Each structure stands twice: as structure tokens, then as C-alpha cells.
Amino acid sequence: MLKVIQLDKTYGSNKHSLKAVNFTAQPGEVTAIIGPSGAGKTTILRSINQLIRDDSGQILLDDQDIRQANKGELRKIRHHIGMIFQNYNLINPLTALENVLHGRLGAKSTVAGMLGLYSDDEKSEALALLDEVGLKEYAYQRCDQLSGGQQQRVGIARALMQHPKMILCDEPIASLDPKSTKIVMDILRKLAREKQLIILINLHQVDIALEYADHIVGINSGAIVFEGPTDEVNDGVLQKIYRQADQPGAVVTANEN
Amino acid sequence: MKTNYQSPQQFYRQRRLRMLIVLLILIGIYVGSMLLVKFQTWNSIVKIPAGLIWLFHNFIPTERSISYLGPILYQLWRTLLVSISSTIVASIFALMAAILGAKTTTPHRSVSLVIRFGASLLRNIPVVAWAMILLFSFKQSDFTGFLALFFMTLGYLTRAFTETIEDLDAEKIQALQAVGANYFQCVFCGVLPEAASTLTSWVLYMIENNLRDATLVGLLTGTGVGFLFDTYFKSFRYDAAGLIVLLIAILVILLELTSTQIRRAIA
């Protein structure tokens, strides 16, 4: 279980800052964070694996506080947290297979990782994972030759190669067409159910969130304004989450009130 | 922010006026410098045709020049080897310096600063000056030429490599950090594969460039095809000197064509 407690983060300006963020995400469930752009969705996600250093609070993954981990411990923790991105962030000139094997880097010695010395078992596992996301025949293709949806699935396979407890998804479908969106979201939901993973997704498409998520966290101007099961989300809740989002300067006015 | 209303006519009138002023300033600078160095534009232009005729008459290789082909090709080969080897060795050091110096991969900001300063120093001393300085310590030899090219190339490539690395999408490297990769793994599995094709392009470009510079450096270090050119030139064997120029041009073009092919293959 992931438990975020009183997480605070301030940048120079008020934008993207977090104010006493509390929420939980359960294994076996898809948890979606929704809210207007600039509300702090990405900041929350990147605080969880400490790509962004927050100011104060607690981030408990199975009762271990990620924020207290030293460098070596953090590397081990990150090894078990997969992450996928809006822009996929694969290494383009490398093949799909090599990108999936990067998922093992956190568990390898420095030299073995640098030189790409993977065991036969690891290679077979990577190929099996590509098969699982339906890309076995693309294993030896350069990633920049794959479509957006295919690249995102390579990203998922890379995350699975980490034997993750949790996968963080930062706007995973924002650059995808509806068909690829469905494929990617179906895979993510399946992973939550079958492997009992914590799937935490930033989304700005409310309809997708309502369709796929079991648990919704609504955020506005860096503060949690709703948390609960998806069927408790109604028009009133959505209005609260997205209030003044369409007006320029909305974030500033919200802070002043 | 308030902007004063401006009609399109006013906007274009102002822009034209500004262009005119810039043009007048440029003409003023030209005329001023002409007067200063007592350069007579018209007299110089008149002399161009006669100069060209003399050039063609004396520098066109003749049948006699063919006898010089052997030594010329041998020296050209040596010059090519010096330019390739200096570029390759310099690029290895430049790559290490660039990884330590690029803002995205530097271990510390002060290291980055030192490397940038050093590279800028190496780069901004002209290769001819390098050759003359190194002549004192290493005398007239191929090695002096090698070192002169090496230092200049090191400065130039360090800068080019640093910028290439900094231009990479930082998120891709972050994605590897998120996997749990450490610094060296991020560099070897992320930065280098992403940058490889651009880096190779720079190395190929520098080899072309260094062949031209190596000729010039040879004049000073008394080696290679540059020195041969100097010898023929000073002993009035202009046709042989012309043959050298022609062969250098052919070699540079060949080199360019090859590197274009290689670049296309790895892109």
C-alpha cells in the first residue's frame, strides 16, 4: 500500500506547489489523480520516487518511508517502482529489447549495467514481457521506428522488468490516439488485477479516469479536494476539482481566496 | 502589458527606416576602414584579371608535374594520417571532458566551469599559433603537427560534444534514474546511445576540417604536404605546387563524400 502523508512542496512561485497532500493507493487497484493542468499532478508523482525532492511529509510504500532512504536504499526502492511517461522516454537508437532490459539496471552492478551484461534468464524474461504487451515481433526494432502506442507498451514492459510493486504513470495516454489509449489502459488495469500492483496514474481525461480507475484523487492548486471510490464522483465533485480551471490566472485567484 | 497602437503603415515605415540606418552604418564602416589602410578599391579590382591569368598560366599542372606525383601522394597520405589520428585521440578525451562538463551530466558545477574554460582556451588559440608555440618544445616533426591539431580539436570537440549532450532530452535520462540506474549506468545506457550519431558526425566533420588545417600546420612544422607545397613554391616549381592544391581539393571532396555516406548510414 502507498500512503502519502502531509506532503509539502514549494517552488519559487505558487504554481505546482503542494499543500499538505494526503492520499492512499491500494495494490490491485487503479488510482487516478485528476485535476487542472498546473495543479501539481506531476509533482506528486515525481515526489513518490524522489525525482523531485519535496519539502516535508511522509511517503510510505509498504510502511517504508521513501523520503528517509539514503542513496543506496533509494536506488533499491526505485528498482521496484516502475514509471511510464507521456513522451515514453525510451532510448531511441536502441532496440525494444534493450530498452526493456534497462528495467534491470537498478539491480545490477555498475559495470554490468554500463556494459549491458545481462544473463540469459533476463534476456528471455524481457522477450516474454514484450510478448505480454503484444510486441514480440518488434523486439529487435529501434524504438524510434515504433508508433507512439507501441513505444508506450515498451515503456510498460521496461517497468515490468523491474518486478515492480507499483507503476507510476505520468499522463501515459496524453499523446496517444483512442485505439492505443484503450490498449494501454486495458494493460494497466489488467496488471493491477492480475499482479496486484499499485497503479497510480496522472490523467487529464476525466472520462478515461472514470472508466478505468477504482479510486480517484482530485487535486486543485496543489491541494487534495477529493479522494474516494470512482462511483462517488459526481458533477459536484468534478466542479470542485476543476473550478476556475479554464480562466487565466485561476490558480492565483484560488490561492488568494 | 500596454502597447501603443501602431498602424501597419507606421510599422513598415519604421522598419524600413531602421534597415536604411543599418545599411548606412555598414557603408560608413567600409569606407572608414578603406581610408585607414589606404586600400584603393578600384585599383585592386582592375588588377584581378591579370592576377588570375598569371595564376592559371603558372599553377596549372603540366605533364612535367606528373613526375612529382610520387612524393606528393606520399606526403598527402602522411598528412591524412596525422589529421585522422589527432582527431580520433582528441575525440576520446573530448568525450570524457564533455560528460564531466555538460550541465546535465556534470558531477559538480565547478567541474563544468573548469572544463568549459579550458575548452574555450584551447579552441580560441588558432591552430597556427599552437604549431608555433609547440615548435619550441618539439622541433620540426610530425608530432608537433599532431599536437597542434590535437589541442585545437580537443577544445572544439569538447564544446560540440558538451552541447550535444545538453541538447538531449533530460527526461529520458530521468527515466533511467527512476529505474534505479546510477550515474555511470545512466551515462552508458542513456546518454551515449542517444548522442552517438551526432557525436560521430562531429568527429567526421573534424577529420575533414583537420585535413585542411594539417596542410597549413605542415608549412610551419616542416612536415607533410604543406611543407612540400612550400618547398615547390619557393623553388618556383609552381606547376607542382598547383598539383598539390588540386590533389588536396580532391582528397577533401572524397573525404566529405565518404563521411556523408557514413553519417547517412548511422543516422
UniProtKB/TrEMBL annotation, chain A:
GO terms for molecular function: ATP binding. The keyword Cell membrane applies. Residues 2-246 form the ABC transporter domain. Gene3D superfamilies: P-loop containing nucleotide triphosphate hydrolases. InterPro entries: AAA+_ATPase, ABC_transporter-like_ATP-bd, ABC_transporter-like_CS, ABC_transpr_PhnC, MetN_ABC_transporter-like, P-loop_NTPase. Keywords: ATP-binding, Cell membrane, Membrane, Nucleotide-binding, Phosphonate transport, Translocase, Transport. This is Phosphonate ABC transporter ATP-binding protein. It comes from Lactiplantibacillus plajomi.
From TrEMBL, chain B:
Gene3D superfamilies: MetI-like. Pfam families: BPD_transp_1 (PF00528). The keyword Transport applies. The chain crosses the membrane at residues 20-36, 80-101, 113-136, 143-162, 182-207, 238-257. Belongs to the binding-protein-dependent transport system permease family. It is a multi-pass membrane protein. It comes from Lactiplantibacillus plajomi. PANTHER family: ABC TRANSPORT SYSTEM PERMEASE PROTEIN P69, PHOSPHONATES TRANSPORT SYSTEM PERMEASE PROTEIN. Keywords: Cell membrane, Membrane, Transmembrane, Transmembrane helix, Transport. Residues 76-256 form the ABC transmembrane type-1 domain. This is Phosphonate ABC transporter, permease protein PhnE. It is found in: Cell membrane. InterPro entries: MetI-like, MetI-like_sf, PhnE/PtxC. It comes from the Bacteria. The keyword Calcium does not apply.
